[in-house]
Automatic annotation (TrEMBL), chain A:
4Fe-4S ferredoxin-type domain residues: 12-31, 73-105, 106-135
Natural source organism: Hasllibacter halocynthiae
Keyword match 4Fe-4S: yes
Classification via InterPro entries: 4Fe4S_Fe-S-bd (IPR017896), 4Fe4S_Fe_S_CS (IPR017900), ET_IronSulfur_Cluster-Binding (IPR050954)
Gene Ontology terms, MF aspect: 4 iron, 4 sulfur cluster binding; metal ion binding
PROSITE patterns: 4FE4S_FER_1 (PS00198), 4FE4S_FER_2 (PS51379)
Protein name, as recorded: Fe-S-cluster-containing dehydrogenase component
This protein's UniProt keywords: 4Fe-4S, Iron, Iron-sulfur, Metal-binding
One Pfam short name: Fer4_11
UniProt superkingdom: Bacteria
TrEMBL record, chain B:
Gene Ontology MF terms in the entry: dimethyl sulfoxide reductase activity
Cross-referenced InterPro entries: DmsC
Upper lineage: Bacteria, Pseudomonadati, Pseudomonadota, Alphaproteobacteria, Rhodobacterales
Entry's Gene Ontology cellular component terms: dimethyl sulfoxide reductase complex; plasma membrane
Organism: Hasllibacter halocynthiae
Protein name as annotated: DMSO reductase anchor subunit
GO biological process: anaerobic electron transport chain
Automatic annotation (TrEMBL), chain C:
UniProt cross-references to Gene3D superfamilies, sorted A to Z: 2.40.40.20, 3.40.50.740, ADC-like domains (2.20.25.90), Dimethylsulfoxide Reductase, domain 2 (3.40.228.10)
Keyword terms of this UniProt record: 4Fe-4S, Iron, Iron-sulfur, Metal-binding, Oxidoreductase
Classification lineage: Bacteria, Pseudomonadati, Pseudomonadota, Alphaproteobacteria, Rhodobacterales
GO terms under cellular component: cell envelope
Record keyword Metal-binding present: yes
Taxonomic source organism: Hasllibacter halocynthiae
Name of the protein this chain belongs to: Molybdopterin-dependent oxidoreductase-like protein
Amino acid sequence: MTMLPAGTERSLGLVIDLDICVGCHACVIACKGWNDAAYGAPLSDRDPYGAEPEGTFLNRVHSYEVVPEEGAAQTVHFPKSCLHCEDAPCVTVCPTGASLKRAEDGIVLVNEAACIGCGLCAWACPYGARERDPSAGVMKKCTLCVDRIYNDALPERDREPACVRTCPSNARHFGDLADPESAASRMVAAREGFDLMPDLGTRPVNKYLPPRPKDERVDVLAPLLEPVAEEPSGLLGWLDRQLGKL
Amino acid sequence: MHPAPSIILFSTLSGLGFGLLVFLGVGAIQPVGPAAAAFHGIGLGLAVAGLVSSTFHLGRPERAWRSFTQWRTSWLSREAWAAVGALLAASLFALTAVLGAPVPLLGLLSAALCLLTVLCTAMIYASIRAVPRWHHWTTPATFLLWCLGGGAILAAQTWLAAMILLAAGVLQVATWRRGDDAFAALGQTVGTATGLGARVEPLERPHTGESYLTHEMVFRVGRRHADRLRLIALLLAVVAPTFLLLLVPSHAAGLVALLCFAAGILAQRWLFFAEAEHTVGLYYGAPGGRTT
Amino acid sequence: MGHHPNLTPRVGDEVRKTTCYMCACRCGIDVHVRDGPGGGKVVTYIEGNRDHPVNRGVLCAKGSAGLMQHHSPARLRAPLRRVGERGEGRFEEITWEEALDLAASWLAPVRESDPKKLAFFTGRDQSQSFTSWWAQAFGTPNYAAHGGFCSVNMAAGGIYTLGGAFWEFGQPDWDRAKLFLLFGVAEDHDSNPIKMGIGRLKGRGGKIVGINPVRTGYNAVADDWYGITPGTDGLLVLSLIHLLLKAGRIDADYLARWTNAPVLLDGDPESPDHLLPLTGEDGEPLVIDRRTGRPAPWNGEGVRPLLTGTLDRGGHRHESAFHRIAGRYLADDYAPEAVEGRTGIPAARIRQLAGEIARAAFEDAEFVPGAWTDFRGERHEGWQARPVAMHAMRGVSAHANGFQTARAIHLLQALIGSVEAPGGFRFKPPYPKPVDAHPRPHANAVPGQPLDGPHLGYPRGPEDLLVGEDGGPKRIDKAYSWDAPLAAHGLMHMVLGNAAKGDPYGVDVVMMYMANMAWNSSMSPGRAMEALTARGEDGGYRIPKVIYSDAYASEMVAYADLILPDTTYLERHDCISLLDRPICEADAAADAIRWPVVEPGREVRGFQTALVQLGAKLGLPGFVEQDGTPAYADYADYIQNHERRPGVGPLAGWRGDGKSHGRGGPNPEQIERYKEAGGFWTSHVPEGARYMKPFNAGYQDWAVGIGLFDVPQPYLFELWSAPLRRFQLAAEGKRDPRPPEDRRAALHRQMDPLPVWWDCAEANGAEEYPLHALTQRPMAMYHSWGSQNAWLRQIHGTNPLFIPPAVAEAEGLRDGDWARVTSPHGEITVPVQVQRALNPRTVWTWNAIGKRKRAWGLDADAPEATKGFLMNHLIHELLPPKGGQRFANSDPVTGQAAWFDLRVRVEKAEARAQARPVLDPLGVPPVTGDGRPDGARREPEAEG
Ligand SMILES: Nc1nc2c(c(=O)[nH]1)N[C@H]1C(S)=C(S)[C@@H](COP(=O)(O)OP(=O)(O)OC[C@H]3O[C@@H](n4cnc5c(=O)[nH]c(N)nc54)[C@H](O)[C@@H]3O)O[C@H]1N2
Ligand SMILES: Nc1nc2c(c(=O)[nH]1)N[C@H]1C(S)=C(S)[C@@H](COP(=O)(O)OP(=O)(O)OC[C@H]3O[C@@H](n4cnc5c(=O)[nH]c(N)nc54)[C@H](O)[C@@H]3O)O[C@H]1N2
Ligand code: SF4
Ligand code: SF4
Ligand code: SF4
Ligand code: SF4
Ligand code: SF4
Ligand SMILES: [Mo]
């Protein structure tokens, strides 16, 4: 099990558009809600109404400021869940085979029935995509909503990850990144989607689309504001002439 | 990384135990009769206590047996096999020794498996790229040297122990030095972690409270605190035992040396975890390298 | 040893479709339920309803977390009667019968003697057409919802100018806009629609410009950010107008046809109508008809108004309003160079923005084909797109110059011809709806009688004010007095203070619903608590009785005498009606219901049902039959059977025999039909009626057809506002009633018929307090009520004060340090966090995260109560004293609470364990106290 498949038939994953993620955390809670009710053990919350509430989440949204050489700082909201890496170190370190990457679609899963909760896979993941649930004692991670995307009890249009379905700004996309023709792949190609920490050799399936350039100075606009009049009477006269032409 | 007491205790105790078993196995000491029972018992006892302690940090210890299945890829699985093998060999060897008929080949096998177990343990850490301080040959090297050093003390190999401890100390200092630059050398920054470029500053964490990730991976230790602990670790694990072993040769001094050493190793192991920067920290605004 | 996960987990065994109320956005939700242990249904999972017009399947964080709200440990269990002192939180549970009898015993004498002694204010009410109807039947003039402290500037500014407003009454044309200007919005009511729209617009390659001192959320994804200095948007916008006018980059044809810019103004300085529209014999405003060069009524058949018309008559020259517009805004006062210092936006950036607006509006604007006929009878082959959309909310309206700033934005929109044009800003039914289609305000209370008309309305001039002979206010909140002439939503934030002071008079009963007035919805929680606990000379409370309805143990609960516990939103009937704030979109009229998808299992009742029953007990007209028996059993009964006008009721769908929509008699099956249809009803605006609605005969006819109004009501956008001008005339002494002497000069300035800007900084102590202090709504938290939610509170459990680097440097502050923040009104000590993308003169924090200890079912050491803090402690309903006088900290036109005019000073403080002020823990009223155990809702077989 902990052998990584030599290759996968498909590489299902997410494409996250940092240009339009508004940081609303909708995906965080939709993920919590679905996965609490579905795959494996529930996602517990310790001390839920107390001083140190702490729960298990499979998807979390950070925010950062990007400080350019020149111009105003920018804020970027940054959702992060398992990237379903091709060379997933979290899989190979697992002593029990609970951590696995599926050959058919590349989804990285934890078989919770086999997991001893040693935490090693979470250490091995460079991205912080795994959390051990303190109540169930097993490792939890993004399942890519395997129990939605193949769930024939759900209407066809709902067979997509809960986070994708809920994202109000449409910043999250789901697809087969191994298929260059998939909408997800085309989006990645068009927008120069990138990997997180590519040098670590994990080869993430999930891709991020960069924020588009911001605060660009547009200098070609000046002629548009060429004055036609300095005085009200001038403007009125000019308008009369313009309207007369209509 | 979070310095979990169970793991620190595990590796310290089992390191000592396996160390002693190595010296017994290679026949560096060959106790007989009740002494044999005592020495082998101590070695096995420490190793087993350590291994048992390590299960405390499992979420589902009752399924620990499953960790034998993945020896092809997982150092933890290999460690499980090696540990069982080592304990088996060491126990058989102990039996033969106590019965007064030690089988040297069995001893050598036991010693090899004990070292292999420690190597596997160390490789669990060394294999993790996300923790560059660990991801280096010095990790198994220091683990092995410390293991042998401890074993030598237990086996009362005065001179050898002193030599090993000094060597381990030197290697440890070098390891720390290297480790201090390891994160930077990895070249990962919050910029590469997010792909957002040169200057990226954290604004808000995903949750205002803590999480498994912040507890487990975003442990931060102050530089001055760490420096002090390093000194203490060296004093306790190297300087004090060496001094005691070489200059105050007595059983009592040997015991004190051992206790000093164990305390020093606890400090070293605490640092081993506490100082280890995980790339996850980048997402949480914990800059790579040592903090001030 | 393969792993075969259960790919078809059942998260529930039935889906029930209703409407979310984790905030006021009204998204459609699919609530998954299954059989619970007690026989009833339990909620297991909530997701968005894909067919719903508001959210089309998406949900925000709060919406998905509704499950946890529904399981909040802070849920009230039964009616409560106070047994301790106010504020102690000690209560006994009583029966509903006792509760309603008690309420009736307090209210009946009030109604019989002096109905105005009931002040009934309803907070975040989604049933205002019902609660106001109740209040009207009771006869008190003292009714309003929360709009006065929320965003009445936006509503009034829009309605007085365009006959419709931003807020949730209109929307950008997300599918056609190319440039989108967003002023002062962090989240807004259209939470999901705005996010969906932003995604769509950016997906099409459109450009978003965020104008906001803080760059988070929507402003973070904006392509261009203008980090404006708070309170100066009016200046920025007027400068844009200056540049566009100067360059002739305006839509003159649009202005001439659809706005009152061509309307002639009375040029006789002596006339009592000076600068009011000149009217013809039929009383209609006059324009010069381009076809004839002669005056003609604005709406005459085939008339082509001349934008620049003048008329010499009676020895005076009467010029079109456009002369005033050009005259005012071409002045150098509005040149970018003149405003850059104040706004913090460099002149070059202002020019860039004006250039972008001009380019998007005029350079490649398509002509969208589609036949339609305007109200003058002219047929058009389509609509000229002006793909510049704008939206603004509280960043503009929560300043004391917000009304005029909102008007300035609307003027800008109209100048470029983008209102109701493709790509611009579009109204959602029941808007457009001009001032004249709104009622006037009413306040004549007669013992034992209903009020003489609706409470809230739109004054046409000073004659509509609610003031007595002496000029004093008739309402407890002084709405529609000289202090707040256009207070179209009332002034809820003034009620408790005024009532406790007896200014203008005392009341016997304060009844409130869904407003946490003892905490985050008050400008100053401390003073609100004081007002609620103040005692008179006789030792009794100065506000003798407080009735409050909440669903949860909020801070306010502790301060009431009688609590009418509400259900959660999944347990009651609600009606999101075309009569108040429906779920319409630009292309459709729509309304919706909530219904009990699960039964409460506690002694709680929907507040509206409680009001129906209380109304019957009091014998209020409309609530009882002729014979005195209750007219309605409960709110559901009311929803189905009440008719506001013949054939028009709370719900528009499936009326009469179930086949008529909009108009028709009551249908006993109506709610069932809604349930079957997914909880909502829609009726699409016909193709040719989609744009230019105020002027589009097709739209007007359709709106009459579905009952939005009774006759077509086309109108012109009022760029030059006649109602405002009438107030000016009163200030000039040319019209009655006249304002008090000392108010005249200021009133004249404030009621300018053209948008103006004034500085709010000085009055708020800018000299000593150099920084602006703001709050923003976090997207994942709704005011105070999200903190009881175990999932949401992990995201926002504390709130730092965000400070710009310059302040951090000057004060030696680093992330996690503590600072003392002082305003003219108070002081707090709080943790700070540096933010770079922030106006250098501004600090801010997330709104309403801080909690009173032990409120909301949280432990006393919950981070919300130790490190979380409220900015409100620094605010006041009044401005700092000046010359012995204190003016309201409100917009002088509408009375809108000026939350964001706050000025502060920030200094480093010692690190602390708790934010200051540290208040005592509240007593905990009886609550369910349970919360939802981990994994409570999963199927046993799904485990493992
Ligand atoms: N500093 C600062 N203060 C502000 C603002 C700001 O921007 N800055 N914004 C202001 C604005 S615009 C507003 S609208 C107010 C909002 O402030 P509030 O109106 O106080 O809003 P909430 O805190 O959301 O909730 C009001 C009450 O409704 C109760 N409630 C929730 N659900 C139900 C229900 O189903 N039934 C009943 N009966 N009660 C329920 C909650 O428990 C809570 O006690 O805050 C204002 N305060
Ligand atoms: N998630 C969530 N949604 C909500 C609510 C909630 O509590 N939570 N509350 C609902 C309610 S009651 C309301 S009223 C709406 C309000 O919705 P918004 O209008 O979005 O309210 P605020 O969060 O107060 O945002 C005000 C914004 O204006 C900015 N601002 C302040 N002063 C100025 C200024 O002078 N100029 C400009 N350009 N910007 C300025 C602030 O930085 C902030 O971004 O949201 C509603 N939606
Ligand atoms: S739901 Fe979408 S917009 Fe919201 S935080 Fe997640 S990815 Fe970003
Ligand atoms: S992101 Fe982490 S958990 Fe997911 S596959 Fe990659 S390494 Fe494993
Ligand atoms: S925690 Fe579970 S999944 Fe992770 S490595 Fe250990 S056994 Fe494998
Ligand atoms: S794919 Fe499913 S499990 Fe993964 S983050 Fe999205 S919702 Fe969570
Ligand atoms: S925006 Fe969110 S909380 Fe508000 S109604 Fe929609 S889903 Fe519910
Ligand atoms: Mo509001």
